[in-house]
Amino acid sequence: MGKSGSAARRRGRGGAENLVEDVDGGRAELVPDRDRRRAWTLLVDGAPQSHVDLDDPAYLSFEYQRRLGHVIDLAAPPGKPLHAVHLGGGALTLARYVAATRPRSTQQVVERDARLVEFVRRSLPLDPGARIRVRTADARAGLAKMPDGRAGIVLTDVFDGARTPAHLTSAEFLDEVRRVLAPGGVLAANIADGPPLAHLRGQIATAADRFGELALVADPAVLRGKRFGNAVLVASDGPLPVAELTRRAAGDPHPGRVEHGRALTDFAGGARPVTDASAAASPAPPPHVFT
User: Fold this and answer.
1) Average pLDDT for consecutive 10-residue bins of the chain (291 residues)?
2) What is the DSSP annotation of 159-187?
């Protein structure tokens, strides 16, 4: 296994070489996509994190990233530049997506794992014309240093291993998100949970305590508590494009369902908002999820 600055290589599927490197969060591996010439999947300690196609950065392979992509698409008129904040970097998939679909956007990525950032930027270079700044910091600490009221969208996709840290699940954390968002700006959060969905319900209640409008996009099996998976929670103080989000999610290769309004309140089932004092990390996925 390589050290920072010199990735080890080992033969992958179809004769292509995987890139493997020690990073702060464990073992990072870039696995070539057999079907797309310059596409790669990033795994950290065996958990899939991101998929990037260097030839087509507007292509989103992972379902939860497709759903976040829908939110990005609907956050402003088509092609209009956005000021986007990404908490959690991974392979910088969504920052590349914004740069490709909304040229001249300005973007700030906050990623705690400095060695992962270096590995990704070296192995999967960013378009030099993209206005993407990457800051190495804890997500909440990095957010606290950002100016008030500038971001059109804040995307949160932060995992320590396969769990979202507790301090990124609280109402106090959402207060910082609200401070950074421009009027009418949108929060889009990737949340991982499984039955009995207590963590997801708590996150819905927390967002409802801080934002006026909410929507949730997920696989119906996840919403029914049948399996562990990802849900995308969307929040804003302005109106959300629920009808169009519903249409897009339904048209995905693995169709998603959108809940909002009374149905989403009922789904939360009386869960109470999470505070810094009561916050806990998201649950660990079952061992079979990534196998």
Assistant:
1) 47 70 96 96 93 98 97 98 97 98 98 97 95 97 98 96 94 98 98 98 98 98 96 98 98 97 97 98 86 51
2) -BTTB--GGGSSHHHHHHHHHHEEEEEEE
